[in-house]
Amino acid sequence: MVHVYWLWLLLALLPVAALSGWWLARRRQRYGAAQGGRRMPREYFQGLNYVLNEQPDKAIEVFIRMLEVDSETIETHLALGNLFRRRGEVDRAIRIHQNLIARPNLSREHRALALMELGMDYMRSGLLDRAESLFQELVENGEYSLTAYEQLLEIYQQERDWHQAIVIARRLETISGQKLHPVIAQFYCELAAVDLDEGRDKDARDNVRRALNLDPRCVRASILEGRIARRQGRPKTAIKYFKRVEKQDPDYIPEIIQPLLECYQELGRQDEFIDYMKGLLEHYSSITPALFITEIISQTEGEEEAIRYISSEMEEHPTVRGVDRLLEYAVARTQGETRESLASIKELTRRLLDSRSIYRCNQCGFDARRLHWQCPGCRNWNTVKPVFGGSG
Known about the structure:
Layout: H1 2-12, H2 16-35, H3 42-52, H4 56-67, H5 74-86, H6 90-101, H7 108-125, H8 128-141, H9 145-158, H10 162-176, H11 181-197, H12 201-214, H13 219-231, H14 235-248, H15 254-267, H16 270-283, H17 288-301, H18 303-316, H19 320-332, H20 336-355, E1 359-361, E2 367-368, E3 384-386
Antiparallel strand pairs: 1-2, 1-3
Helix pairs in contact: 1-5, 3-4, 4-6, 5-6, 5-7, 6-7, 7-8, 8-9, 9-10, 10-11, 11-12, 11-13, 12-13, 13-14, 14-15, 15-16, 16-17, 17-18, 18-19, 19-20
């Protein structure tokens, strides 16, 4: 088709003069006998020259005028609109796609494609309600359903409409064959978190259980379930839920150590907490359990024992956080110039720690200072984890 060659021209933005002769030869070969050697309208060259000369508004005017008289240019217009959107000129893309949709003789297939492209334009410009309406129309008509469902899912996530996100994700699973159980489990966790914040413990617990039924390895659901149990005055049960995280994904162990300590302290079983931390140290490369043990030893047995313990841990697993804790004890126990020197070093380790990422996305490398269950960078779920040596 004619539009294929012009799509290449538009996307590559090559000089018109270099390709025009080749294209015309191909067109004459293809259509010469049937159409009597019909020549390419000169307006095409004019429009493309406007594109190349960065005069997009004039180019749009030319192509829209041609659209009224030549139906073969529809896909070229779609490609042009797509090009403008990719360049960030969304208003121009919208104008082109709206003009296409307004054509009364547009085929069903081309209209559906134009609707999809216009929906993508609206998504890019942040007009989510308009985009939602177009993608719903495509779904109802059974056209481009996969793309439409994917975009609707993205819209409902951005709008934090988790109920609708669950509905769409389940439909998307059916038509695409994708396994979205872990993602849907995160949607239920979002609902549970809202319920918990607003005091609806029963609803929160129900949503957590739905999440775990879909994804038994959902760390977030276990943490939420532990929080619910704690608030209901069941620290022993909360401990069971928090400890489940170790089997689900040990990378998240740092996230449950503080609430675990508080639960054990409520029960007066701090020694059991220390035993559990020592067990973690034997199996995982994390400084966090050692620092918690150090703090407890300092409170119960004194700083000398705490220093002895953390020093032995640093000999086997040296980390900046461990050194920072040793310096903290050293500064408190010295005077004069020695204290000032150690305080200066302590300030350096503090700056180093402050500049380091605590969390990082395993998919796109996005760095964060707090845990995001959905990465703000790549929008994937459950990919942001504690960085070893940072929070770990």
